[in-house]
Amino acid sequence: MARQSELAQHLGEVQLFSKCSKRDLEQIAKQMEVLDVPDGTAIVRQGGAGDTFYVLLEGDAVVRRNGSQVGELHAGAYFGELALLDPAPRNADVVAASDAVVGKLTVDPFRTLLREVPALNERLLAGLAHRLREADRRDVR
User: Fold this and answer.
1) Mean pLDDT highest for which of 74-88, 92-106, 108-122, 127-141?
2) Would you give the DSSP letter of residue 82?
3) CATH number of 2-140
4) Cα(137)–Cα(47) distance, rounded to whole angstroms?
5) How far apart are alpha carbons 29 and 127 in whole angstroms?
6) How far apart are CA 75 and CA 62, in angstroms?
7) Helix/strand/coil for 43
């Protein structure tokens, strides 16, 4: 149960879910699976199916694009949230740089949740609009 509370807290920091209520976040967290990921394990692979969102609960990971490291992720980081809305191929590898624990949400339970809680759709759209607005501001500078 502590993990679901931790997941819900992290979900509140994800722009896609930023307009969701605490109850919404708890419902989303209930649909997530928590996995132990050994050091060196690829969590996602560039070009692979993008149908899962992840929250890094413990540990570190590196992001590699075309074999070159382009970023680092630490506990609390998240990735793949747009895959829940648009299952496109992954644009990078994410590899555990230490033993890690991740929360995983696949697209099927997410879609079920959207059907069961219709109000969630509007809040997710508001969060997505916020993310797009922020990206647009960065592009203008």
Assistant:
1) 92-106
2) G
3) 2.60.120.10
4) 28
5) 17
6) 12
7) strand
Distance between CA 65 and CA 49 in Å, rounded? 15
59 contacts 96 by C-beta, under 8 angstroms: yes
| Residue at 101: amino acid letter | V
DSSP state of 90: P
- Reported as a single tens digit per residue, the pLDDT across 12-62 is 887 777 788 888 888 888 989 999 999 999 999 999 988 998 989 899 999
Name the pTM for this structure: 0.81
Strands 100-106 and 52-58: antiparallel
The answer to whether 103 and 54 are in contact (CB under 8 A) is yes
Nearest alpha-carbon partner for 48 in 81, 85, 90: 90
Ranges of beta strands (E only) in the chain are: 33-37, 42-44, 52-58, 60-65, 68-74, 78-79, 93-96, 100-106
